[in-house]
Amino acid sequence: MKRKTFGPVTSQHVAQLAGVSQSAVSRTFTPGASISPATREKVLKAAREIGYRPNAIARSLNTARSRIVGVVMSYFDNQFYPQVLEALAQQLDELNYHLLLFVGDRDGNVDRIFDQIMQYRVDGIVLASVSLSLELSEECLAAGIPVVLFNRSEETGIASSVNTDNVAASRQIAEFLLAGEHKRFAYMAGVADSSVNLARQQGFVSALEAKGVQDIRVVQGDYDAQKTARAAQELFSSSAPPDAIFAANDHMALTVMDVARYEFGLRIPEDVSVIGYDDTGASGWPSYALTSASQPVTAMVTATVALLMKQIESENIEPEQVVVTGALIVRHSARRPHFGVVEKEGLSLFQPQEVE
Amino acid sequence: MKRKTFGPVTSQHVAQLAGVSQSAVSRTFTPGASISPATREKVLKAAREIGYRPNAIARSLNTARSRIVGVVMSYFDNQFYPQVLEALAQQLDELNYHLLLFVGDRDGNVDRIFDQIMQYRVDGIVLASVSLSLELSEECLAAGIPVVLFNRSEETGIASSVNTDNVAASRQIAEFLLAGEHKRFAYMAGVADSSVNLARQQGFVSALEAKGVQDIRVVQGDYDAQKTARAAQELFSSSAPPDAIFAANDHMALTVMDVARYEFGLRIPEDVSVIGYDDTGASGWPSYALTSASQPVTAMVTATVALLMKQIESENIEPEQVVVTGALIVRHSARRPHFGVVEKEGLSLFQPQEVE
């Protein structure tokens, strides 16, 4: 994907390239204005090609903001996302902004969502949905709408993003499991090409390989409870089932635990250790007591709102990649190593570097 | 609370009562129009007093709708609400409407939320928050905005609402527990004055009393995990702890189960039966296998959207109270009676009337 140049491109350039009038360009980017779909299509294509951003013009015409931030989200069954949505709505509310919700299409129908977003004069967009992130963020940026990717990133770095350090945290999970003397490792993957899944898999696998572990099983849960249950059944039915499983998020980890206990009669952590990523509400429930890499929702949302506001206030959209620091929260779903677990503010954390 | 009369009240009446010009009334109800806060306050007060609804006028001036539905919601940690939010967003999306989210203030700051809602030209409102429902729905209706109360109702019947039959379902839970030969009953109450809590408590208690049960303990969980844990500790610490607990929602029931098992070493259902209300995602997880009265999210949301659209299309807001039929989903958190449990489409339901 080629990086766009955001020079001083004007609506005249766009009109020229698209072969339409300057007024057609203006109407394309004026919410509610009349424009034929074919012309609009030409203008958007040209605007994308030369990286035209109409927001400065639009703002000079429209001093009043809509005070609406669009949020594209899916996976409401994963408790992490409702937590994020609530925190985002509350923090935006304090700034007198509100949140217009678009439910992400897991099949990745970008055009439809983009058209919906363009119907409303949103001041910014938070993309917290997997498959849409790349194309949709480019479309929005090309249309002059500030974008922040939440819990995902794109290679080009064209859009701002907020994440935890997925590679480092997943490496730490590998070290924790190695220190707990596990032997047979498995990774329950999320949607294969999602940025966080790639980073978590890479961190986990590379840290194990660096310690000489060769045979790491990778199965696909795709962030989906049913697929995860089937993949877990496959793992536990094998001749040498894993004694350590890292699931790319808590939502899948909880399913893995239920399958292990209730379908295979396995004890956790005596027979198999399970670790997740997110540290969502249910992970702390005593029925699960899941060891998990935390994603601090409040800090991540604070960073997201700050990035959005900076972009909304400014004429320029300078992408920034924010990394929020989490921790490995140690509970009882994985065997504890003999070193490295420290107690802090009522939580047990894995911080071997502080003990050595 | 006195019932408003929705006669043919005009903006002239409002202007007269408020002592302002008719144009001031019009500007108060025109989004984005200039109006001083003091004048606006006078107009809103007068409009509320005489039940003025500007929507007919506003619509004749503004043929274009905002295509925004405001949703006031809280309790995101209770999985039921994110499920509702997702379904609502998807169903509205199909009608090319989208959802602007307001996080309900549990302390019930109505004015602030109302002012925020008025900032946006929403076409309708769904109120799914406990403490705000009564006053807020009156304010919105007085301002001419269609309102649907979701999973709550108000005594006056002034606003439309969608609920399951809370009284009947809770009566059935009492019958199920009586049929299971339980002896000592407790009710884990939600927020004391919320409409669904009152209905569930009334249905449960009256059905038990009708069968001669006198001593029914009622403790307050207030829909809050920490308060619920403390109330459960109180119940299980007593000299004659209950052997049957009905919690006013699943979110509290799951907490009761965790406290029973992990703090008191009780077996479920051998030592104590627990039943919830909602049938949310986690209730079906094998770690809980909670017996619960279902609230069919899709059917409830379909009814909500239908009510909203009918009101948005029409000039008149005729309140309707829709009751959606649920079922008692029988899993393993409560002792099963020897009769009345039938298997349907992979689920076990309590339907004694069909067996007798």
From TrEMBL, chains A, B:
A Pfam family: Peripla_BP_3
GO molecular function: DNA-binding transcription factor activity; transcription cis-regulatory region binding
Record bears the keyword Cytoplasm: no
Segments forming domain HTH lacI-type: 9-63
Alphabetical keyword list: DNA-binding, Repressor, Transcription, Transcription regulation
Keyword ATP-binding: no
CDD domains: HTH_LacI (cd01392), PBP1_LacI-like (cd06278)
PROSITE patterns for the chain: HTH_LACI_2 (PS50932)
Alphabetized SUPFAM superfamilies for the sequence: lambda repressor-like DNA-binding domains, Periplasmic binding protein-like I
InterPro entries: HTH_LacI, LacI/GalR-like_sensor, Lambda_DNA-bd_dom_sf, Peripla_BP_I
Recorded superkingdom: Bacteria
PANTHER family the UniProt entry points to: LACI-RELATED TRANSCRIPTIONAL REPRESSOR, RIBOSE OPERON REPRESSOR
Identification of the protein by name: LacI family DNA-binding transcriptional regulator
Species for this entry: Rahnella woolbedingensis
